[in-house]
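Customer ticket, subject: "Can you confirm the structure for Preprotein translocase subunit YajC?"

Message body: Hello, I'm evaluating your service for our small team and ran a test protein. I'd like someone to confirm that this is what the system normally returns, since I don't have a reference to compare against.
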Amino acid sequence: MNWLLIAFILALLVSPVMWLKPSPKQKRVARLRAHATRAGVRVKLAAPPLHAAGKQMPSYRWGYPKEQPGPRFVAVRESASSSVLKAVCHGWRWRIEPLRPLPDDAQQRLEALLTRLPQDALVLESDIHGVTLWWYESQGPERFDSYLGDLAALRDSLAGRPDRPPTVKPLVK
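Agent reply: Thanks for trying us out. I re-ran your input and got the following:
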């Protein structure tokens, strides 16, 4: 009877520790985020640029060089957007369209990338700081590697093409 009581007390002591153990999904997401960070991608949780987005979502940002800001646009998956918005390509719509048309090579890269992103990727955004992918991290590091080159190539083709030209500061005498 004493052994049973000791086993019960040990189970009570060990059970909270087991609750703190990360789940397989948490381990996969941690590996994915660490892998992306090592590849030079900035990962953070923030509110996505969606209408009435109440909760935070993971964002992966490929930064533009400071001297070469990029254009501002937001492409949203049709499942998370209104049918009134203008289409970018199959399955995606502009929430914010670029002020100036994108160069042909950048437009082709953008459309090719959007058509092959996973279903949980809801937003692809660009601003003066970088290209940001908002998604729910459904895939592992190995599959994520297949998007790294395409997103970096898109970033490179958009760098230095801001919506507004940089202001020139007057010379002070």
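A couple of notes from the result: The CA atoms of residues 31 and 141 lie 7 Å apart. The first strand starts at residue 42 and ends at 46. Feel free to reply with more questions.
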